[in-house]
Amino acid sequence: MKIFSVILLLTTTLAFSQQLTQKQANDLAALPMKCLQQEYPNKLSQLLADSTEIAGPKKLHPAFYGCFDWHSSVHGHWSLVYLLKKFPNLNNRQEIINKLKVNLSKQNVLTEVAYLNKKHEKSYERTYGWAWLLKLQQELDTYNEPFAKELAANLQPLTTLLAERYIEFLPKLNYALRNGTHTNTAFGLNLALDYAVHAKNIALQNSIRENALRLFKNDMGCPFSWEPSGTDFLSPCMEEIGTMQRIMPEEDFLKWLRDFSPQLFDKNFAWEPGKVSDRTDGHLIHLDGLNFSRAWNFYALAKQYPKQLGHLKVLADKHLVYSLPSITDGNYEGEHWLASFALYAFEQKL
Fold it and tell me: What is the pTM of this model?
């Protein structure tokens, strides 16, 4: 039975690298479904003003209390909406919709708004959770189903608040954060800009573009050899490339990219995926996320610039395939969030 499971996993992984099938969609949907309304274990990133603020996750965050932490819950919701949209015959479709409607009720979202409006919580989930929330809003906005329209309207007050918070925060950020974890500046800008373009939010678009150019335009020679750090789940070099790819005209971007990462233009360029030594360790398994982060940026480059950078698709596939098996290995440390990363990589591959 164990040998059969390994063969099945390898077959599924190879198939997923080519296309997402109905079965794989069902398997991936099962992961956030498992934890969407699972309150514990839970990691609260809460600043207590006094003892009256001590409460359980579900009371504090009735919309996004599951899947271990707030941001993982947010992108778990995004994964389910994405899969429902792409696969109308998804298993347990109505159950998924029912859970989404319970979590993303108007009152629950307003409770989240009230939490983030606390004076001492203005930086809560900045900017990783903010970015995924905007992506969830975009997915709901573009889903032409009555329940999705209802949820999009429910979520909008929180989205509006976070869009305003981006505009307020970015000019104050004198220096970019170039780490590979939650506070990475570039990743936080990338999903937010995608939403701003979708929503025709000109103020947010302008703020992101102006501040991204200020922070990144003069960067050169990104140290690829420094990646990955031990617990990265985002690629600092590739996420910054993703930002500049979004905001610069093609000719200017390619010139900037040659200064920032000339090795990417080498058709023989090789970059080994980040290797995970222990997938039961909640921090070490982050490296699977880093592999997906590299993959979605490689796919985006290869798709937009096939002549100059089309060879990066092979490298993207290599990173994607390396980490796919860990998504369904039974370890909650990865299961509560990695499906979203894999789906985002697949979205860029299309």
Answer: 0.94
